[in-house]
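Record type: monomer structure entry
Structure origin: computed from sequence
Chain ID: A
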Amino acid sequence: MSVLPFDQRDGVIWMDGKIVPWADAKLHVLSHGLHYGGAVFEGERAYNGVIFKSRQHSERFRQSADLLGFDIPFSVDEIESAKAEVIRRNGVADVYVRPVAWRGSEMMAVAAQNATIHVAIATWEWPSMFDVEQKMQGIRLDMADYRRPDPMTVPAHSKAAGLYMICTISKHRAERKGYADALMLDWQGRVAECTGANVFFAKGGALHTPIADCFLNGITRQTVIELAEQHGIAVSERRIMPEELPDFDECFICGTGAEVTPVSEIGPYRFTPGDVSRTLLEAYSAEVRRPR
């Protein structure tokens, strides 16, 4: 499928406090964030022009930067206003929203205390991957080779650009084998998450999901847990070992991009998307579009 390169699109981007034409939103090749991973970002969706849990995303954006040791030079209120302005100026109501912040080009070594912190916000169309019935057929996941690292070795609760390197490698390997994504274990060999989405399993009408201690506790993940409780579905956040996978009836992944997407296969393990997956898929779809 041909996709228009992101540097060749029309529209505007908010950058360091100003709206600029899309093609002019550039950074220097010697930006510290590009070389040393000093960058954080958010992934958000706007439905009918309203970003779902926008402020929660903006707060996490600043918290992620703090974990990497730099301050985003804009308040949560300023970020909120900028996101709304970009959506309005680009004139599309249902969009993906990408705030990103990075260390600039003033210093080029491991240390970069005096680097300017830059911030940009872009939006683009990214529709749901499938309709409900297509999603209920389930996607296929591979088992990733790389594992989520020990949280004592990385800032695991920051949505930091560098932490996604092994995710990109793992997703590419899975796609080359015909899978949609890959399930990653943690550094101790326990089930963790997919390359860009959290994972849930269902058994006997109850949900089970890994404890988010070495990976991001996704905002979509938190929403799914809230919705499950509202629908009387018990949720257990616990350690899950790979050998348990044959015992589960259903599986689904969730995230801003994936929303709620059932899974039919993880490597040698098979699942049948059923009532729990459908209930939460439909509940999430209704929740993000609920007037606010």
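Annotation 1: DSSP finds seven helices and 16 strands in the chain.
Annotation 2: The chain has a mean pLDDT of 96.
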